[in-house]
Amino acid sequence: MKRWRIPLGLVLLVVVIISVLMIPFKQAFTFTETRAKHPQMAYRVLSDVSEFQIRYVHSIFLTNVYETYRVQGKNGMLKFLTMEYEDVGIGLPGYAEEGETLSVTEEGIYTLTYQDKVIDSFVLYIGDVDAQLAFGYKGVETDLKAYLQRGHSYEFRVKRLSLYELLKGVNLNGKKK
C-alpha cells in the first residue's frame, strides 16, 4: 500500500489562504439580523469619515427624524451626537435630561445634543410599513428597506470584517437593488 505525502508547501499555501479569508481587516458598519438561526448581514465599508446618520419617518407624526453618530476610535464605539425632529411626543422628547441640551430653531426644528452618550451597538427594527428608513454616509443615503428584510430586527455596530464576511454579506453601496 502506497502512502500519500502532502508537500509542506501545499500545507503552508492552504494555511495562508485560510488566514487571508478569515482574518478581520476592514472596518465596516454592519447590520446583523437578530433572532435568526442563520443571521444575514449587510455592511458598508468605513473609510476616513467617521460620522453617519440614521433617518426615519416617525410613525405617528409622519415627519423625518435624524439621528447623527460618530465612530469613536478603532474599537468601533458609537457616540450619539444629535437627534433632530419637528414634533415633540412619543419617542421625541420635549426636554433635555442630564448630559443633554435641547434647542429649537425659528422653523420649529428641535435638536437634542448629547454630551457623552457612547454605545457599542443598537438594534433597528425594520417595520412592515411604507415609512422611510435610511442610512446616510459620506453624502449618500441608502434605503435600508431595499436591502434588509421587513419585520426583522438588526443589530447595528462597527466591526472589522474578514474577506470571507465581505464576500458573504450584502454590500450597502448606496445604490438601490
How many strands in all?
Answer: 12
Give the radius of gyration.
Answer: 21 Å
Oligomer: single chain
- The run of helices and strands is HEEEEEEEEEEEHE
Overall shape: elongated
- Class by SSE composition: mainly beta
End-to-end Cα distance: 57 Å
How many distinct helices? 2
Mean pLDDT value: 90
Structure in words:
By secondary structure, the protein is mostly beta strands. The protein has one domain. It has two helices and twelve strands; from the N terminus they run αβββββββββββαβ. 14% of the residues are buried. The model has no long low-confidence stretch (mean pLDDT 90).
Keywords, please?
177 residues, mainly beta, five-stranded mixed sheet, elongated, DUF1850
Please sum up the structure shown.
The protein has 177 residues and is mainly beta.
Topology:
Layout: H1 8-22, E1 26-33, E2 41-45, E3 51-57, E4 64-72, E5 77-85, E6 100-104, E7 110-119, E8 122-125, E9 133-137, E10 140-143, E11 153-161, H2 163-168, E12 170-171
Parallel strand pairs: 2-12
Antiparallel strand pairs: 1-2, 1-11, 3-4, 3-9, 4-5, 5-7, 6-7, 8-11, 9-10
